[in-house]
Recover the amino acids of this structure.
């Protein structure tokens, strides 16, 4: 039994145990052990990545088992430069979410169990190398989030929860049809019926499927739709703001931090290799989705009264950069730039995952302490909670793409890597930057600065268990902004493998002739 | 010398029925009968599972080739027996202190016998007999609560429409008999094969449509479904479980045999018919389920929708361009889905019974214990039941990690393989819509405001639900180092599919 | 003279500590500064001092020991993106100036901010501010420069809004950021373009380091974007960034509001750490501009126009700090203009611009600090109409300000005299054999001189001489030790820098080596860089040395300065002429100047509030009712269909039977239909 | 010897009458009779066919179906009796607690 299975079992066991507990303390204890155990395992995987890297399949920690062999469903997991960062992201976010919800008193056992289940299902999506398994986890992510929104949610939780459930479910069932077609045509042509992701994707990529363009495009479009709704990309985004507004803080953090990344992950894992074979204009369609989201989000965000909704729209814009980068990285062009675009897009997933945690965390803290999220009711909070002010300013600046925060590294990579293939798109995307800066600054100014709004009464300073996770996340994105190599190197290698067809450099193998180690 | 051991299962059930009926006349402490029933059913089930891949045709006396024991029959037998077991256990609680419980058990056993006969029959006569046996027994069971006007009304509607449809069926059969000169399904098929012109005569067309109507009544296809919601709602819940899970599947067993084996020669015609019926059934079922306020009635409509999904099998099988693998996957998926739906729906109705029982015993007189408003905060009042019920609804909605997902997965897979994109999209959209009304119940249960203090949960009911849920989960899950049990069911259904479709 | 044992140390190896020390200072201040000496300020000041020592050590290595220039870099995140440091005359000049000024501003702030409660935060931010500026100056590639460029912007945002509880302060910070953001996004776009065309050349290492770019200008000049020369577009985009940061027209609007911050911050921003960044960028990227057709012409014109434009605004403002703010804008205009003249003058232009930048840094810091001392002395009154006669109350401050003012108006033998007059003379040379706009540039600059003299001394006379016009102005109290010291030191340099550097000549010669290293070999930072050839790429023929403008051109600025001084004296000191009948609200010219040419009105009221807000509202409606409306409509339709459909279930069994019969007949008909009749 | 068509026609007519009755009538007993009528139409078909093609199984089928019809009728009458007990009338039209 490999590390990945152990990782998932740890979380599953934790979920079941904490469901059986009675008090907050017990449930929290179980959750802490389990989630930080998962984090430890993830970090262990990161450290042992090179050693366990299979240079034939280009996956590490690969495990295969039988599930339903008669129809070609197998238990197949493994990680590579795309999925391992996502696994680390999921574990980091969920682990510190358990600390963040230290004093959760409403149905604590269910709460922490759902938290761990959320972690489990998300990791499952990222490690699955079998379409059935992938789809199962993809669907399973809906349930914990549905309950998190529903039980701990705000006033309109029924509407939001059901909307979230149905909307994303429709997307995924359509995606299922694409998977069916892929499965069938591969089986029909080779006689081997299997849901194995690498096999099917490679077959599609290498044009081994003797099928009409209609079916190629059908497969592509259905799967793309599934991912675009999950990302979410305008105009399929309307479930997101509602879900965020009603979800509890933890729900929002996980939703924006990790759950949205499923869509982006799918783009890299499934869609990107296919792009060459399906009609070319789909690439531009994806890029267009990205661009529309990028341009849409700041305008929509500035119109919001609710701080959390504003942040929700900001994440729509940031996810748009991923689509843009992916699309640009597959268009024929200069290889270094393509690799940079691809790497940047991958890194954007990770960095936005961390940054948005801080943003939603701050929203949660503000709501928890002032009992309102309406921007106009806030103001001058720096007076009462200076620690929070520092964190929130850091988070918002990182989110608007400030250098020396991870977001800038990613977006610079995407913009400069995409320019040579789609200049117009990049120029338009760059134009959105001031507007993005605008609404972030506006929000910070209206909530943190100016005279203190006395109606809020005596607001207490941020609690330690709220401060700690936010601080850790902040430190992470700052460090990654200054020295992103630990994450980027891995992505870089995978990107070169994906884009430059096979020749793989050693991990972190970006190299420039000049220069060397840092001269301390 | 023919080996009759293959008939042992049904024989045991018949014997149990007789025993229960007769002993019931004499003894006072009747609860024992329930256990006898249970033992009989379980033994029979064990035998069925043991000989799951039997393939015995009794071509000589005394059955004149009317009865066959093949994997197809066996898998349906297994379904009926499992449903029977679930219902029997539930009945121990529901009718544990009812003086007439012996009648209930014997009728339930006889209904099971009828269903098994239908599943095993290769002759229209035997099929008709089994059909009527099951129907008549269930008519009576639907009205088992004599004092409850709803129960009586349910029985009345069920009976009248049932009579109408069985007469339609016999009428159709009579024409087929007249044109082919035989009631044996294989013979009919061969006659059609011999002279293709026969398949195009208007008479045979009329017969076909009437047969569709006759079985469509049991399978509750729209527009032959209208009795179903009323009956399922009005009848005692565990009887509804038997109806929705058992006798509905009996309709499918019969329809598979007759159309896919007997009338395969005229598939171009019933392809159209079933295409329309399937789409109509799943859509209407789902849309009407959305607006129901009684959980029991919602389940009734959802089982109509599920009938629509399973009807996809006919469409794919009859669709000419469909490749062999699609046909096999369709048939297999249909059987698997029938299987998962049988367990899930039976258990769901039993859960409704359990909840209604708890509500009535605690909150006293409420006008409709099945009204969804009574489910508010059930997770607090009866956590175990609520949890299991929610999982069952997941299975019905086709959401992992339960077997309902796997079966639906395979079933819909076949539509794409056959190239019926439109149908596939309609199916998945319906399935997505169905999530809505299941989720609404879950929402009520988990974040509605509780109306009263906690219930004492009946261990028996919880036990039934627990087995059902555990079974569904185990069938889904992968197990380390071995193929998942679900795969065994798949293989079983696949063998059955090969046997029926002959692909 | 330097301590001899330093001669053995090669400071260039520790250049990264110039950046790192202030960052460490920032962290220490932020975390534990509150609990240290005077509740903060120690770490920041000491770290800046450390940076200063290393900077001057490097200067010593390069200028005295002539150890040669220096550059090193190491890998960063993406392939070909490196982090690196350059030590050459250009960066050294900036480093020494920034560290010196910034150190003394910190020194001053210890006294000035002593009463502020969040002192440690202030010093943390200023330390970060200075450190970022060091990083910007030292960086050897565009991306690193841009990163620190943005960091500088952040710090300015935080510091301008340092008194966050004042809404206008917070708003001013936001405005500063937004004006810069407009330029910065274009700057970033330019970098992306540069990256792309460099990669297109097959460059894989140090892709956007200045050195690599300069070496490849030959090929890059053939690249086109949308049919135009790529380099020109890139330079224009860079120029947008410069306009944002260096407060060029029309993105200068944030500078006056930025006065909401503490005065020391204004001093930092205007003298040392922020606005000079733009000028530095053009100087650093000078070869690119040179190789790009028409780019320098645009630079020259924008600079000259800004210079004149801002000095007209300076005439009517009554806020002491704002007057100096406008003077900053106009002086930056001079620097940018002379850089533009580089199209003819070549590297000399860079030398002149940087020299003026340094001189300006000294006297502008002096002016701001002295005005800060004024505010400190009379309780934060900034309106010169309420001051008067302060010279008696605070002589140190008054004479310090006088020194700064004299330097600003280029009074003979002050620092400004050597730097600015040289600029104007060479602008004339540019005009004679430069582009078509040449004369206009020169005329703008010349007119700027007289206005500068006028508004500067208007401010000084109104503030320092005459009778006190408000209660607090009657008894101003002189500033304390920390501030006094700083004022004295700065005054010395403001007056004496020109003479120290031999009228700037030494400075110029030293700085010209940046791009023209006497041995055109690999020893320099930019080996084998020949500006003449590069100039030809952009169609700029550099003039050889030795051209001298006619005598009248050399004396003209001096005369005009005296004229301006005379006007100010007659009007505001001798009060011979009463200008109040011109300075009236009904005077249209006055109106225009008073409203800053309605530029703020255009940006803020029209664009920001009217147009964009309308768009946002529309967007919200679109999102809520159109895109989301479709989703909700679908669910509504479904439920309504259900409500209608359930009514068919009448409960009467005959109807059910009817339905069955109906179904049979319908099926019959349909089947027959589909099979095409019987 | 009466040709087959007549039997079929008669059976068809009977069947139609029964169907019409079920759709229109509202008395429980009558409905039951209509169902029987339809069943018997089917039986008539069977017998006619079996004599037409000299095959006995049709008549066997008919016998079985008669028997089953009897059983069905028994249950049916029981149910209708229940209805009568509960509401002292067997007008089916008013039996509509369960609907929508």
């Amino acid at each position: 039994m490999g590390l990945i299975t152990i990782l998932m079992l740890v979380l599953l066991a934790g979920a079941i145990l904490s469901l059986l507990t009675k008090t907050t303390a017990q449930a929290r204890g179980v959750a802490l052990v389990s989630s930080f155990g998962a984090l430890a395992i993830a970090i262990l995987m990161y450290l042992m990545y090179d050693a366990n890297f299979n240079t034939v399949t280009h996956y590490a920690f690969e495990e295969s088992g039988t599930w339903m062999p008669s129809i070609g469903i197998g238990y197949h997991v493994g990680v590579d430069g795309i999925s391992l960062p996502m696994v680390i992201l999921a574990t980091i976010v969920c682990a510190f979410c358990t600390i963040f919800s230290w004093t959760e008193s409403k149905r604590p056992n269910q709460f922490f169990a759902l938290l761990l289940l959320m972690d489990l299902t998300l990791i499952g999506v990222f490690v699955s190398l079998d379409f059935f398994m992938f789809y199962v986890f993809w669907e399973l992510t809906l349930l914990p989030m549905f309950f998190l929104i529903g039980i701990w949610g705000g006033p309109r939780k029924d509407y939001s929860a059901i909307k979230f459930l149905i909307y994303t479910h429709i997307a995924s069932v359509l995606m299922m049809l694409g998977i069916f077609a892929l499965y069938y045509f591969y089986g029909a042509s080779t006689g081997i019926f299997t849901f194995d992701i690498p096999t099917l994707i490679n077959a599609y990529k290498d044009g081994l499927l003797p099928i009409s363009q209609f079916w190629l495009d059908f497969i592509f479009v259905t799967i793309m739709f599934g991912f675009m709704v999950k990302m979410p990309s305008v105009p399929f985004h309307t479930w997101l703001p509602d879900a965020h507004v009603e979800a509890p803080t933890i729900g929002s953090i996980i939703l924006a931090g990790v759950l949205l990344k499923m869509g982006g992950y799918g783009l890299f894992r499934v869609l990107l290799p296919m792009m060459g074979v399906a009609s070319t204009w789909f690439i531009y369609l994806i890029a267009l989705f990205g661009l529309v989201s990028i341009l849409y989000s700041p305008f929509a965000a500035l119109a919001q009264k609710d701080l959390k909704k504003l942040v929700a729209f900001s994440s729509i814009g940031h996810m748009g950069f991923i689509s843009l980068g992916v699309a640009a990285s597959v268009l024929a062009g200069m290889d270094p730039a393509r690799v940079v675009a691809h790497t940047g897009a991958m890194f954007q997933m990770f960095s936005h995952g961390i940054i948005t945690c801080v943003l939603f965390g701050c929203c949660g803290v503000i709501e928890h302490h002032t009992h309102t999220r309406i921007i106009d009711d806030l103001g001058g909070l720096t007076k009462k909670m200076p620690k929070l002010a520092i964190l929130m300013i850091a988070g918002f600046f990182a989110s608007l793409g400030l250098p020396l925060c991870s977001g800038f590294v990613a977006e610079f990579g995407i913009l400069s890597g995409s320019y040579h293939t789609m200049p117009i798109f990049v120029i338009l995307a760059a134009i959105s930057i001031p507007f993005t800066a605008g609404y972030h600054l506006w929000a910070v100014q209206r909530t943190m600065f100016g005279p203190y709004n006395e109606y809020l009464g005596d607001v207490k300073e941020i609690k330690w268990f709220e401060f700690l996770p936010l601080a850790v996340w902040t430190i992470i994105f700052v460090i990654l902004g200054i020295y992103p190599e630990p994450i980027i190197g891995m992505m870089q290698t995978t990107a070169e493998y994906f884009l430059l067809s096979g020749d793989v450099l050693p991990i972190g193998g970006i190299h420039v002739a000049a220069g060397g180690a840092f001269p301390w | 010398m023919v080996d009759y051991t293959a008939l042992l299962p049904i024989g045991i059930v018949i014997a149990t029925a007789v025993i229960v009926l007769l002993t019931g006349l004499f003894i006072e402490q009747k609860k024992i009968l329930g256990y006898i029933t249970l033992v009989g059913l379980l033994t029979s089930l064990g035998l069925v599972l043991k000989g799951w891949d039997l393939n015995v045709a009794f071509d000589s006396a005394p059955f004149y080739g009317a009865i066959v024991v093949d994997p197809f029959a066996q898998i349906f037998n297994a379904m009926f027996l499992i449903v029977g077991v679930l219902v029997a256990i539930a009945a121990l609680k529901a009718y544990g202190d009812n003086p007439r419980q012996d009648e209930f058990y014997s009728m339930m056993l006889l209904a099971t016998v009828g269903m098994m006969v239908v599943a095993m029959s290769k002759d229209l006569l035997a099929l008709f007999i089994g059909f009527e046996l099951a129907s008549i027994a269930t008519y009576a069971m639907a009205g088992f609560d004599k004092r409850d006007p709803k129960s009586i009304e349910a029985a009345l509607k069920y009976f009248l429409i049932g009579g109408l449809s069985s007469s339609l069926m016999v009428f159709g059969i009579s024409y087929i008999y007249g044109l082919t000169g035989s009631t044996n399904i294989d013979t009919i098929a061969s006659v059609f094969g011999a002279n293709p012109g026969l398949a195009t005569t208007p008479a045979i067309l009329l017969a076909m449509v009437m047969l569709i109507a006759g079985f469509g009544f049991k399978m509750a296809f729209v527009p032959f479904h209208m009795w179903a919601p009323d009956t399922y709602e009005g009848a005692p819940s565990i009887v509804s479980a038997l109806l929705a899970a058992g006798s509905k599947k009996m309709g499918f067993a019969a329809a598979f045999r007759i159309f896919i084996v007997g009338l395969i020669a005229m598939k171009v015609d019933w392809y159209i018919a079933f295409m329309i019926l399937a789409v109509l059934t799943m859509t209407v079922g789902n849309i009407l389920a959305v607006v129901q306020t009684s959980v029991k009635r919602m389940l009734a409509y959802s089982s109509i929708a599920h009938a629509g999904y399973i009807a996809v099998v006919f469409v794919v099988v009859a669709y000419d361009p469909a490749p062999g693998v699609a046909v096999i996957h369709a048939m297999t998926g249909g059987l698997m889905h029938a299987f998962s739906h049988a367990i899930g729906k039976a258990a769901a109705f039993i859960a409704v019974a359990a909840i209604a029982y708890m509500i009535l015993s605690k909150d006293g007189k409420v006008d409709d214990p099945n009204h969804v408003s009574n489910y508010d905060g059930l997770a607090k009042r009866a956590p175990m039941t609520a949890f299991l019920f929610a999982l069952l609804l997941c299975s019905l909605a086709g959401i992992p990690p339960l077997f309902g997902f796997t079966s639906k997965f395979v079933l819909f897979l076949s539509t794409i393989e056959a190239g019926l994109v439109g149908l596939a999209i309609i199916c998945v959209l319906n399935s997505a819509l169905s999530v809505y009304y299941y989720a609404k119940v879950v929402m009520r249960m988990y974040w509605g405001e509780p109306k009263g203090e906690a219930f004492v949960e009946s261990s028996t009911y919880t036990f039934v639900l627990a087995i059902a849920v555990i079974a569904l989960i185990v069938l889904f899950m992968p197990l380390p180092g071995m193929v998942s049990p679900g795969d065994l069911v798949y293989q079983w259904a696949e063998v059955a599919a090969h046997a029926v479709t002959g692909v | 003279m330097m301590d001899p044992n330093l001669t053995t140390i090669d400071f260039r190896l520790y250049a990264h500590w110039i950046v790192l020390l202030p960052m460490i200072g920032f962290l220490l201040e932020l975390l534990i500064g509150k609990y240290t000496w005077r509740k903060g300020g120690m770490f920041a000041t000491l770290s800046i001092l450390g940076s200063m020592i290393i900077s001057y050590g490097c200067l010593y290595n390069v200028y005295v020991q002539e150890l040669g220039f220096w550059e090193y870099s190491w890998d960063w995140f993406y392939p070909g993106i490196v982090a690196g440091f350059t030590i050459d005359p250009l960066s050294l000049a900036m480093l020494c100036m920034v560290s010196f000024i910034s150190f003394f501003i910190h020194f001053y702030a210890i006294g000035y901010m002593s009463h502020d409660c969040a002192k440690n935060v202030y010093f943390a931010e200023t330390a970060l501010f200075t450190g970022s500026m060091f990083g910007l100056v030292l960086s050897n590639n565009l991306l690193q420069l841009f990163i620190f460029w943005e960091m500088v912007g952040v710090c300015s945002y935080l510091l301008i809004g340092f008194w966050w509880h004042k809404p206008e302060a917070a708003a001013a910070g936001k405005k500063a950021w937004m004006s810069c953001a407009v330029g910065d996004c274009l700057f970033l776009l330019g970098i992306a373009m540069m990256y792309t065309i460099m990669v297109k050349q097959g460059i894989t290492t140090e892709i956007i380091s200045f050195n690599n770019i300069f070496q490849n200008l030959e090929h890059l000049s053939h690249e086109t974007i949308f049919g135009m020369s790529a380099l020109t577009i890139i330079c224009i985009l860079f120029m947008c960034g410069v306009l944002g940061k260096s407060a060029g027209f029309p993105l200068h609007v944030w500078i006056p509001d930025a006065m909401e911050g503490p005065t020391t911050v204004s001093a930092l921003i205007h003298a040392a750490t922020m606005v000079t960044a733009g000028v530095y960028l053009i100087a650093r990227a000078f070869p690119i501009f040179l190789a790009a057709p028409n780019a320098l012409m645009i630079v020259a014109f924008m600079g000259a126009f800004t210079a004149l434009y801002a000095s007209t605004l300076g005439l009517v403002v009554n806020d002491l700090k704002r007057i100096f703010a406008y003077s900053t804008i106009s002086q930056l205009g001079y620097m940018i203009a002379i850089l533009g003249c580089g199209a003819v003058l070549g590297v000399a232009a860079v030398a002149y611009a940087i020299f003026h930048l340094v001189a300006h840094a000294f006297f502008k810091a002096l002016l701001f600090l002295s005005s800060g001392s004024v505010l400190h002395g009379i309780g934060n009154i900034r309106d010169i109409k309420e001051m008067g006669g302060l010279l008696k109350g605070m002589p140190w401050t008054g004479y310090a300000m006088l020194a700064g003012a004299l330097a600003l108006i280029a009074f003979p033998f002050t620092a400004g005299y050597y730097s600015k007059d040289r600029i104007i003379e060479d602008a004339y040379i540019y005009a004679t054999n430069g582009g078509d706009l040449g004369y206009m540039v020169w005329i703008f600059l010349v007119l700027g001189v007289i206005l500068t003299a006028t508004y500067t001394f208007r401010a000084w006379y109104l503030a320092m001489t005459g009778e006190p016009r408000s209660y607090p102005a009657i008894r101003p109290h002189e500033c304390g030790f920390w501030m006094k010291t700083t004022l004295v030191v700065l005054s010395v340099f403001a007056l004496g820098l020109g003479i120290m550097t031999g009228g700037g000549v030494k400075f110029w010669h030293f700085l010209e080596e940046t791009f023209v290293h006497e041995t055109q070999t690999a020893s320099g930072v930019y080996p084998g860089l020949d500006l003449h050839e590069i100039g030809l790429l952009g169609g700029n023929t550099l003039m050889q040395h030795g051209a001298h403008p006619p005598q009248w051109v050399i004396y003209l600025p001096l005369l005009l300065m005296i004229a301006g001084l005379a006007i100010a004296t007659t009007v505001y000191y001798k009060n011979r002429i009463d200008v109040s009948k011109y300075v009236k609200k009904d005077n249209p010219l006055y109106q225009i100047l008073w409203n800053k040419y309605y530029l703020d009105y255009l940006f803020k009221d029209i664009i920001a509030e009217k147009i964009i807000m309308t768009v946002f509202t529309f967007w919200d409606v679109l999102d809520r009712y159109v895109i989301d409306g479709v989703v909700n409509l679908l669910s509504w339709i479904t439920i309504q269909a259900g409500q209608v459909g359930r009514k068919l279930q009448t409960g009467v069994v005959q109807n059910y039977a009817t339905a069955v019969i109906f179904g049979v007949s319908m099926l019959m008909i349909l089947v027959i239909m589909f099979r095409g009749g019987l | 010897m009466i040709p087959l068509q007549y039997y079929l026609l008669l059976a068809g007519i009977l069947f139609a009458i029964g169907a019409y009755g079920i759709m229109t009538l509202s008395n429980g007993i009558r409905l039951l009779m209509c169902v029987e009528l339809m069943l018997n139409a089917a039986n008539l078909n069977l017998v006619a066919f079996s004599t037409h093609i000299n095959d006995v199984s049709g008549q066997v089928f008919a016998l079985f179906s008669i028997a089953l019809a009897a059983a069905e009728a028994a249950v049916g009458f029981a149910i209708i009796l229940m209805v009568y007990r509960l509401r002292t009338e067997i007008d089916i039209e008013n039996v509509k607690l369960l609907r929508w």
